[in-house]
Design a protein that fits this description.
- The protein has 237 residues and is α+β, with helices and mostly antiparallel strands.
- It contains nine helices and seven strands; from the N terminus they run αββαααβββααααββα.
- A hairpin with a 2-residue loop joins strand 1 and strand 2.
- It is elongated and about 65 Å long.
- The protein starts with 8 loop residues before the first helix and ends in a 5-residue tail after the last helix.
Length: 237
């Protein structure tokens, strides 16, 4: 996969504040109301997950044997880039659409809370927690970040027969390569009642996994695509 690119690091931090996370095996599952909800005046955009992540970054940079050039806030900022779900989701869609989408088929994200707008947070599910592993090896800080996206492979004829807007459907794949993040037209498709209540032909779990060496600056980012038995056999979380 291509390297992650986020124009607005503050936006990435706001998104991450609403995420559930697992940091070195410790679960942080309490989250705020939702990304569409306004923040109270002067209230910092933060979460226990992000607070703990900053503290761990600071401790790791102070460990004996760690390169003195490692900066805690640079380390934290580098991790925030990988915690931006909207960017990761868009990149994953760009990768798998050419593999799976054909004339009759389309890959769509299943509606989750990061797709919602203010006042409608309770209508959709939380995304799966982001898994972050941080460790020191040979004097360098390393990380592995795994973000799972839940997609569905749909037959276009099924969507159209249920009343999904044909124009939005035809524009979806074209806009993937042009818009960053998803466009308003694409979000309208995700909020179409006909789509929201529809089961995909095939459920897909797509993991975006990145391993980073913050000392050398080397990284590798790749996809893992699975067809989960429990969802496709009739059980949906």
């Amino acid at each position: 996969m291509k390297n992650v690119f986020v124009e607005d690091i503050a936006m990435a931090e706001r998104e991450a504040a609403y995420e559930r996370g697992v940091l070195n095996g410790v679960k942080f599952l309490k989250v705020k109301g939702g990304p569409g909800e306004p923040n109270k005046e002067n209230e910092p955009m933060d979460s226990y997950f992000l607070q703990t992540l900053r503290e761990i970054c600071g401790h790791m940079c102070e460990m004996d044997g760690v390169s003195g050039s490692t900066d805690p806030m640079a380390l934290y900022g580098g991790l925030l880039l990988r915690l931006c779900r909207s960017t990761s989701e868009k990149d994953a869609l760009e990768e798998i659409t050419p593999w799976l989408a054909r004339e009759e088929l389309i890959v769509l994200p299943l509606k989750r809370r990061h797709h919602t707008v203010a006042g409608k947070v309770g209508e959709s599910k939380l995304a799966q927690p982001i898994d972050v592993e941080l460790f020191v090896e040979a004097g360098d800080v390393h990380a592995k970040v795994t973000m799972t996206h839940e997609f569905g492979l749909f037959r276009k004829s099924d969507l159209l027969s249920r009343g999904v807007n044909e124009h939005r459907l035809s524009e979806w794949s074209k806009l993937l390569s042009k818009e960053k993040p998803l466009s308003s037209n694409q979000h309208k498709l995700l909020h179409d009642a006909a789509f929201t209540n529809m089961r995909p032909w095939i459920f897909l779990d797509v993991d975006v996994i990145e391993r980073i060496n913050f000392g050398s600056g080397n990284n590798v980012r790749f996809l893992s695509v699975t067809v989960p038995d429990e969802k496709n056999s009739g059980y949906v979380r």
